[in-house]
Amino acid sequence: MYSKIKNQFATPEIEIKRNDLSKVIVKRDRLFELINLLRLNYSYVTLNAITCADWIEDDHFALSYILTTEDRKHTMMVQALIGRDSAFDTISHIFKQAEIMERDLHEMYGIKFIGNQNLKELSLENWIHTPPLRREFDTLKFVNENLTFRDGRDDNVDTKVETKRLRALKKAKKLAEEKAKDDKNGNS
Amino acid sequence: MIKMETPKHITIFHGPQHPGITGNMSVELDLIGETIQKATTHVGYLHRGFEKLIERRTVIQAFTIVCRICVPEPDPNEANFAMAVEELAGIKITERAKYIRVMVLELSRLSAQFLWMAGQSGSIGLYAVGQWAIADRDLILDLFEELTGGRVYHMYVYPGGVRRDLPNGFLDKVTDLLIYLKERMNLYNDIFINNASFKNRAIGVGIIDKEEAVANGYVGQVLRGCGIKADVRKDAPYLIYDELNFEIPTQKAGDVYARALVRRDEILQSINILEQVVSKMPKGDIMIKMPTHRKFKLPKDDTWVKVESARGEFAYYMAGDGTEKIRRMQVKGPSLIHGFTLLEDLLIGAELSDVALIMNSLGICPPEIER
Amino acid sequence: MKWSIDIKGTLSPVSILGAFFDKPNTIAYPQVKKETAKGYRGFHTNVLSDCIGCSNCQDVCMNDAIDMIKTDMEYNAKNASQCIPRIDYGRCCWCSLCTDVCPPDSLKLDEEYMNVSKYASDFIYIPKNQ
After folding, report:
1. What digits encode the pLDDT tens for the residues C73-106?
2. What distance separates the 2 farthest-apart alpha carbons in chain C?
3. What ipTM, to 2 d.p.?
4. Which domains can be identified in chain A, with CATH numbers?
5. Nearest chain B CA: its distance from A40 CA (Å)
6. Which of A165, B93, C84, C93 matches a 20 to 30 Å C-alpha distance to A184?
């Protein structure tokens, strides 16, 4: 099976991660072709999940379709890299459950799935900012701008700075003492 | 709300405050009389942004919030997280840690099944069963309190092992509790499972088609209730499940009652597994030496791990990026598909009074839909 | 709906009446208190004569719940920064990572878990010296 996929899709990257898990990376325009091949010829009939990871430094999303065989003994992770602002085709005409997964990803990453009729908001109501799971969305900045913090915690001391200061103080004190001693000795 | 253009339609919200709903979610129902024409699931009352929070934290720091993803049974999350981190970092854990993990996972399955029993019986008005089940669940929580230091959120299964060794005499306490629970199961059979009022309500309600169930990616009791032996513990064994002896209970009918029977048998199987684990518990270390949290780095790689929770397959996608932080952790619990694709489908044509019954039998848990 | 008489299913639930003769599972709470298990993760305690003010606990805390502060309490002579941790219980999640990383093992979690107060500012808690 692996050699056939390698030949047909010209993809060198088939990674066998565990006994029950393999990963294939394909070009985005041949992704559905491969999923259909796996589904019809190798009994990968269930779509378990669509996962997405944001690789902002390489400027792409890694979109993985997790497929499981009918006897649930082997899992195939079919991954395609798509541009961070591009749209993608829906797979909900093949797998019914993909509709809600795509809706989730649309909300969290802003990926538009062409053909999915149900891309309305899922859990974030009236969200007008960047889709929250994109890497450029800075949660700390958002919190600082929109929320207030509890009072009474301003007396935090940076221990590293404080340790240095105390050491310097101690040293100076010791020096001063020695100096005073020397002066005393010198005088007498 | 009565729609004026079609006066016989009425739209109501079932939840989020309704006691028959399983957690903080709601179902918008379109009714004609008592019969449901259209159901739409709404979530969004519980979004906490865990997946984003995890991206900001180091691996060890992230471990403390994964247990909060599912409230009734936090341990599958912890086990999944630990397994994913161990696989990415190439860590092998000790034998004793594996056994303790299995014990914690099975105890948590038991506690979740008792909580389900409370919900399922409450949804048809058998409140006595609910109170007893909650009381029995509390005995399991007492064990957790002693073992992990927390009753609900254990934060116990740690990447590299488990955090505390078993206290003195803990295994004896587990054995005693198992004997007690086994005895109680006869009682639950009498007053709940074989109860004529439950049978009349549950048989023939919420029937799920077998072919559709496989293709649509349903998991857990939904599959087992249709006669498919689906269980991650047998299909892709993790930890030490391949060394243990247990059955996967199945039923043919695919309705609410079949799922209840499957769950009842699963409680007995969990007790069986726990007895084996207690008798086989090896000696040794519980934790391998781990680097401090700023120095623990994951390679640039991704993986997909899954464990069997009380409601079916619970899976995590995890990607590391060569730093001490996790690039992406995606949670895929059973509820996302069950709560939308399945529930919206199953409620069409059902009676209004059966909504709570069907929802409880699917075991939908909104915290893992929204994360 | 089809209806056939289910004699066993109708009669067996009556066995629930036997529970009237059982001992209650509950306890009379204010008079009888439930014993907390040993090793319960409750409030923090800090042995000041051991604390070295290293701020490892502050570093590992993912909720930013810990402040290192100066107090007039007596501290360890080896405490290089002369600071001790103070915990914001509005943020703390009792994961006990701070006690895991404590080098002299001075910060611990206690079985105590009740803190009733009128004021929200009492959530900011200086661990008791033990």
Report:
1. 777 777 777 788 888 888 888 888 888 888 888 8
2. 83
3. 0.83
4. 2-126 (3.30.460.80)
5. 12
6. A165
